[in-house]
Every structure is written in structure tokens, then in C-alpha cells.
User: Fold tRNA (Guanine37-N1)-methyltransferase from Halorhabdus tiamatea SARL4B.
Amino acid sequence: MPCVRVPRKDGEATRARLAERDLIDDGHEIDVVEDAIFIPVVDPAAVPEEYAVVEHDAPVREGQTMPADVLGFEPSYERLGEVVIVDEDDLDRAREIADAIMASDLPVETVANRASKVKGEQRVREWDVLAGDGTEAVHREYGCEFALDLAEVYFSPRLATERHRVVEQVEPDERAFDMFAGVGPFVVPMAKRGATCVGCDVNPDAIEYLRENARHNDVAERITAIEGDVRDTVPEYTDWADRIVMNLPHSADEFLETAVALASDEAVIHYYDIAHEDDPFGPGERAIREAAGEEYDVTVETRHTVRSYAPHELNVVLDVRITR
Assistant:
């Protein structure tokens, strides 16, 4: 299984850093072989680049009861802090999985099943709480902590690696604008890198959590949180942004004129889209070029598939540099 390999002298510091990011696989033991320590991890793609990830036969933790041990099969679930998310159409099966998760040794307080698709302008969904109480969670991601309520805001832990990919591009003196900021998973780590950030969202609960998360992560002085339609912010922030995040895949094209108005003389736009697999990047690129018009030169720096979204549909991102 994937493990981070470090010298024994660096073992505890590395373990603490990986634990802070919820990356350690609790079902396997940390192994010591001669002068090296092997720390099992759940998501090798999310491990900081300075660490070496190798394959190693890490021992299964004895006495550790996992949901699969109770069920007799491996269930699909996501962890968001001490909340576990399942996605089952069959409510009886969902309850069976929830009972097994609560009976396991996972550090879990709540199990919730997705009860609807994301809907409405505020991008929230309904939940069936199968075990525990409430839908509030604290999610840890690459050294940041995000408080949120699943029933009141949109948040996907699956996008952690993609968010980190974007954040790693940020320079300390940048001005970054997240047009659909949610609880701050882009702007908070950007601010921790030294950027001056603006996060806008129509969801008042998301903005309150964004402000709380900015304070909790000690970056409140570098983040301005704005509740409302991002199109109404243009007069105050025209020509302001060096970097713009547009993570509203189903309708980001409707906001491209606003993004161009926010852009400074040179800016990078991270444009997220849902597109057919036959032409995943073409529609977004054409829309960006049309919005930029003759005022900007457009250079596509990255065409990246984030994940599969539905049969024959992909969630993709374009990193586009526009230069006046």
C-alpha cells in the first residue's frame, strides 16, 4: 500500500504533519525498517511533494475493526472530519452501512446519506442523518481547517487535490478573487501563502463560515468576504485581480464577462466546466476567448480533467492567462 518513507529521525514530525491533513491510514500500522519509517497514507496524491511515497507492505492494525469487517464487503464512503458521507439510493443499505461505520473503530460522530442532488442558487443538498446528530463538521486539508454545515453550504472533500494544485501556483504578492468562494477552501490557503484575497458567494451561511475560517486559520486580515452576486462587485474591483477562481462548473460561462472585468492587465483564470468527453475543453476555451474579445490575448496554460462527473461527462478545468 502507499506509504510515506522518511528517516527515523524525521518520523514524528512527518507523522504529525500527515495527521494534520487527515492523510494517515488508521487501518495499518506505521512500520519501522532499519533506519526508515513507513507511514501508511489514504491519498498519495495529497501528500506534500517533499515526501517520497513508496509501496510498502504495512501491517494491518490488529484489533482495528473497519466497516468492511462488520459488513462483509467494502462500502463506499467519504470522511469529512468526524462526519462520514455515504451515497446510497437504498435507504436500508445506507442504514446498514451507517451502523457498521459507527460500530467500527473509525473516529466518527455522524453518518449522513445524500438525499438529493445539489440544487438552487446556493448549491445545497438535502441529507438523511443516519447516525449521530447534525451535519456540522470540521474538515482538515493541507494544513487548513474548515468549519462547515453540509446542510447549509456546498463543499466537496473530493476536490482537495485540485484545490491544492491551484493554491500551489499562488505568489505571496498576488491579488486573488474567488467568484464562488463557499466556506473558503481556495481563498484561505491562498491567503496563507501571502496573497490578498476576495471571496464572494450568494449563500450567507457560506460567507459566515468563510469569515470564521479566515479567523481560525489566522488570515482574516488578508481576506475580504462579500455576500451577494459577484456581478455586483465589479465597480469596486474592476482591473483588480491577478488570479480568478471560477468553480461553478454548470454555469461559469454566464459569469465570464464579470471575470474579465475583474482581471488586471495580466491575470490567470481557473475556469471549471462540465463538458462532454468528445470535446471537454473546446466549449470553455471558446467562451473565454469570446468574453476576452480584442482587449486581451488569451493563452491556455493547462487543460486538466478533474474527475469523471457522469456517463460521458467530465469535470474539467482550464488555467487561462489573459494579457491586456
DSSP finds nine helices and 17 strands in the chain.
